[in-house]
Amino acid sequence: MPDAPETPDIHPVPALTERAPAKVNLSLRVLGRRPDGYHELASVVAFAGAADRLTLRPGPDLALALRGPGAPVLEADADNLVLRAARELAARVTGLMLGRFTLDKRLPVAAGLGGGSADAAAALRLLARANGLAPEDGRLFAAALATGSDVPACLLGRSCLMGGRGESLTPLALPRFGAVLVNPRVPIATAAVFRALSLPPGPIRGPESVPPGFATRQAALGWLADEPNDLEAPARGLAPVLAQVEAALAATPGAHLVRMSGSGATMFALYDDCRAAARAGRMVAAAHPGWWVKSTVLG
Ligand SMILES: C[C@@](CO)(OP(=O)(O)O)[C@H](O)COP(=O)(O)OP(=O)(O)OC[C@H]1O[C@@H](n2ccc(N)nc2=O)[C@H](O)[C@@H]1O
Ligand SMILES: Nc1ncnc2c1ncn2[C@@H]1O[C@H](COP(=O)(O)OP(=O)(O)O)[C@@H](O)[C@H]1O
């Protein structure tokens, strides 16, 4: 049989791909409400192995296509954080080459894992690669912060202490943990949780304790035990199922710390290694087939 004729390559520019890892707030203190309405935070942030995946085929037009298990709950419209981040960078870089993005959406949406922020940061990294911008180019950071408070940390992409509303980032040594992330498939809007906190504008207090950087898992767990997530109480009011999620994670062997990430409703537990996390993840998934359960690595 003769060979099929070759399809001409109508996209000669190679596609670029970036992972967009889930952000986990291991601790989150709210230090006050600022005059601009945002809350001043002090949060130890880590990144998980669990991730969305974003591809860019560089070109003059800006477009987005969605696929993957999370695609049905999202719109590929102008409000999508991938496109917002691209527009923010285009507003700062004359003649920026854009392109067609494809987002493989795997992380739950409105879940406290910063999935949209991770996608936005991945979009900025891809555009930087396509345009030869250095990762430390200040326009990337500015575009990130203009897109959302969590985007600068996602652009940094490594464990850090996050301050301000998300603009102050100090890299932080953190040992590796196994982790299980559990979302009960109850989306929570970040703004609603901050509203439920009902903090009046006023003076910003200083952090009670500044993390020193952690050489061992024991040192990290010791410090984190005294540094909770201040958004957990208001989130529990909005999503009472969090009590069940906490109980399910706490019942798994080897769970060190059970806590909510960001404004929820994803909760996580930390383990000594990935095997313990995988075993725990299987337990929770079997008991709660309707929940999103992911065992992963963190740090
Ligand atoms: C709470 C955190 C913790 O990492 O994560 P998530 O729960 O969203 O993942 C973040 O601060 C969320 O960052 P992000 O989701 O980018 O928030 P933004 O789009 O900037 O703001 C959404 C809304 O949340 C409130 N907001 C956000 C951040 C902040 N420091 N103070 C606030 O008061 C504001 O009401 C704002 O209108
Ligand atoms: N690419 C995206 N992925 C997820 N959410 C997005 C995206 N683009 C826009 N959004 C919107 O951003 C909001 C926050 O989403 P997300 O980042 O998943 O929340 P969280 O930070 O709480 O995990 C949602 O209301 C969602 O509709």
TrEMBL record:
<dbReference type="InterPro" id="IPR006204">
    <property type="entry name" value="GHMP_kinase_N_dom"/>
</dbReference>
<feature type="active site">
    <location>
        <position position="23"/>
    </location>
</feature>
<keyword id="KW-0414">Isoprene biosynthesis</keyword>
<dbReference type="InterPro" id="IPR014721">
    <property type="entry name" value="Ribsml_uS5_D2-typ_fold_subgr"/>
</dbReference>
<comment type="pathway">
    <text>Isoprenoid biosynthesis; isopentenyl diphosphate biosynthesis via DXP pathway; isopentenyl diphosphate from 1-deoxy-D-xylulose 5-phosphate: step 3/6.</text>
</comment>
<keyword id="KW-0547">Nucleotide-binding</keyword>
<feature type="binding site">
    <location>
        <begin position="108"/>
        <end position="118"/>
    </location>
    <ligand>
        <name>ATP</name>
    </ligand>
</feature>
<comment type="similarity">
    <text>Belongs to the GHMP kinase family. IspE subfamily.</text>
</comment>
<feature type="domain" description="GHMP kinase N-terminal">
    <location>
        <begin position="80"/>
        <end position="157"/>
    </location>
</feature>
<dbReference type="InterPro" id="IPR020568">
    <property type="entry name" value="Ribosomal_Su5_D2-typ_SF"/>
</dbReference>
<comment type="function">
    <text>Catalyzes the phosphorylation of the position 2 hydroxy group of 4-diphosphocytidyl-2C-methyl-D-erythritol.</text>
</comment>
<dbReference type="InterPro" id="IPR004424">
    <property type="entry name" value="IspE"/>
</dbReference>
<dbReference type="Pfam" id="PF00288">
    <property type="entry name" value="GHMP_kinases_N"/>
</dbReference>
<dbReference type="GO" id="GO:0050515">
    <property type="term" value="F:4-(cytidine 5'-diphospho)-2-C-methyl-D-erythritol kinase activity"/>
</dbReference>
<keyword id="KW-0808">Transferase</keyword>
<keyword id="KW-0418">Kinase</keyword>
<keyword id="KW-0067">ATP-binding</keyword>
<protein>
    <recommendedName>
        <fullName>4-diphosphocytidyl-2-C-methyl-D-erythritol kinase</fullName>
        <ecNumber>2.7.1.148</ecNumber>
    </recommendedName>
</protein>
<dbReference type="InterPro" id="IPR036554">
    <property type="entry name" value="GHMP_kinase_C_sf"/>
</dbReference>
<dbReference type="Pfam" id="PF08544">
    <property type="entry name" value="GHMP_kinases_C"/>
</dbReference>
<feature type="active site">
    <location>
        <position position="150"/>
    </location>
</feature>
<dbReference type="InterPro" id="IPR013750">
    <property type="entry name" value="GHMP_kinase_C_dom"/>
</dbReference>
<feature type="domain" description="GHMP kinase C-terminal">
    <location>
        <begin position="228"/>
        <end position="287"/>
    </location>
</feature>
